[in-house]
Amino acid sequence: MELIQQVPELSAYLAADEAIDHKHPLVRETVTELRGGTTDAYAYAAAAYALVRDTIAHSADSGDMRVAWRASDVLATRNGICHAKSHALAALLRAAGIPTALCYQALADDDGGPGPVHGLIAVRLPGRDRWDRLDARGNKPGVDARFSLDEERLAWPVRPELGEVDYPVLYAAPHPAVLHALRSAADRPQLWRTLPTAL
User: Fold this and answer.
1) Cα angle vertex 69, ends 167, 141, to 5°?
2) What is the DSSP-derived secondary structure letter of residue 160?
3) For the chain, how far is it from start to end, CA to CA, in angstroms?
4) Which of 83, 159, 176, 189 has the largest CB neighbor count within 10 A?
5) Are 123 and 141 in contact (CB under 8 A)?
6) Do 58 and 82 meet the contact criterion of CB atoms below 8 Å apart?
7) Which of 120, 119, 126 is nearest to 43 (CA)?
8) How many CA atoms lie within 13 A of 133 on its CB side?
9) Is CATH 3.10.620.30 the classification given to domain 4-194?
10) Domain residue ranges in the chain
11) How many whole angstroms separate alpha carbon 74 and alpha carbon 133?
């Protein structure tokens, strides 16, 4: 699949916004801790990925009803759905000067019907002339996402026979429909009812 930048300028994928608030002190503090003195962008990206995937619980797995969506809130509460975790990882990577895009998939629900749109990221690491998608949703039985630049190791490869879709657009900011659902939900059950099933 060919990934398509929504915005031609690479600088757009380094910007801070309301959700990817990488100028927030907690995000900056986390970046400093993760760097640990290294200047290697690959090692840093892998460490940031592991932190978000493994230490921030996916609220559907943990049962947490809170809806965090801003990167700094996700880091503070250690909680969030895939979109929130993607915002946190994007903030950590952009703050370190690594261009990061938001990506989406349309996935089927457990009953085979359309499920909520799934969020992940893509990175453009130094020396690579392409974007690499990463999914820090969090692993559980049946989900084994990995930091991999050789082959995609996403939480859920799409199943076209079920109508699932990988959207090729690399978004510089969260998709408005996703962000609206996150911002307006009082709790996770309401969020599941309002997240878009397609973009």
Assistant:
1) 65
2) G
3) 17
4) 83
5) no
6) yes
7) 126
8) 28
9) yes
10) 4-194
11) 21
Q: What is the identity of the amino acid at 167?
A: Y
Helix axes 82-95, 41-55, angle to 10 degrees: 150
Q: How high is the mean pLDDT in each 10-residue block of the chain (199 residues)? A: 96 98 98 91 97 96 96 98 98 98 94 92 96 96 94 94 96 98 96 95
How big is the chain, counted in residues?
A: 199
Map residue 59 onto helix, strand or coil.
helix
Residue whose pair of structure tokens reads 């990061």 in the numeric block:
100
At 169, list the tokens. 């657009």
CA pair distance 96, 16, nearest whole angstrom: 12
78 closest CA partner among 103, 45, 56: 56
Place of tokens 């975790």: 85
Q: Would you say 106 and 187 are in contact if contact means Cβ atoms under 8 Å apart?
A: no
